[in-house]
Design a protein that fits this description.
Elements: H1 12-39, H2 49-59, H3 68-81, E1 91-94, H4 100-108, E2 113-116, H5 120-123, E3 134-140, H6 149-159, E4 160-171, H7 186-189, H8 198-205, E5 209-217, E6 223-230
Parallel strand pairs: 1-2, 1-3, 3-4
Antiparallel strand pairs: 4-6, 5-6
Helix pairs in contact: 3-4
């Protein structure tokens, strides 16, 4: 509970009221609103693909290499998650942006790295190599943007080697209203639920993967990191 005497004098009354309103919105109103949006399938079932494509490529387009915090967080994530990975591994970086992650992979000595990017403008800044299956698939702040999450997850299962690892980083919790259209898959992933990532884990367990490792980090923003292994059977239709 936030005590009145714990508020720093420099915050002032306006600042204190803003804190209270933010707390009420996040803890009381947001859960009910997100529950309603999830039930009616918003924005997934109400968003046309043409509009989705425009949102992802134009309205919410940003260049990761221009954001020092983002680049620093990407480097810290790769250093941590690929510390003991063989340099001979074939790696897929999905939604690689303008290549800040690819550049660091190569700096570490990984030469078999594929960069895939939805936005052709950013893809022009990234390099690509052709492989059909991968030892590791790296998905950093990507799947929440998926238009068809189930289809995307099945494709990741298909192109991941049987003994490979899917490494996923997601914004968590993702309870911002302004990201609803930019992150149409966040409800299906369970990112709006502050339950220590249990709903996120459940999604992947129900779709062909086993969680090997889970962590909450704050490299760029609060985020959940998962290392996932393939189950023997394919995800159900």
């Amino acid at each position: 509970m936030l005590a009145l005497n714990s508020i720093h004098p420099s915050v002032g009354l306006d600042g204190f009221l803003e804190i209270i309103v933010t707390y009420i919105m996040r803890k009381m109103i947001a859960p009910f609103l997100f529950y309603f949006l999830r039930k009616i399938g918003y924005p997934k079932h109400l968003l046309k693909y043409k509009d989705y494509e425009s949102i992802q490529k134009n309205r919410f387009c940003s260049f990761e290499s221009e954001n020092k915090l983002w680049v620093k967080g990407q480097i810290k994530s790769i250093n941590k998650l690929f510390k003991n990975v063989s340099k001979r591994s074939v790696i897929l970086d999905i939604a690689c942006g303008d290549g800040s992650g690819l550049k660091h992979f190569k700096k570490l000595g990984f030469n078999k790295v594929v960069g895939v990017e939805f936005n052709h403008v950013k893809a022009a800044e990234a390099s690509k190599v052709g492989y059909k299956v991968f030892d590791y698939i790296y998905s950093s702040h990507t799947l929440e943007h998926a238009f068809d999450l189930k289809k995307a997850t099945k494709e990741l299962f298909r192109i991941l080697k049987k003994d490979g690892q899917l490494i996923v980083i997601l914004p968590y919790p993702d309870r911002e209203f302004y990201t609803i259209k930019a992150h149409p898959a966040k409800f299906d992933l369970g990112l709006d639920k502050e339950d220590k990532g249990k709903s996120v884990v459940k999604y992947f367990e129900n779709n062909g993967f086993v969680v090997k490792q889970k962590a909450i980090e704050y490299y760029r923003q609060p985020e959940i990191q998962l290392i996932l292994l393939r189950k023997k059977s394919r995800p159900s239709e």
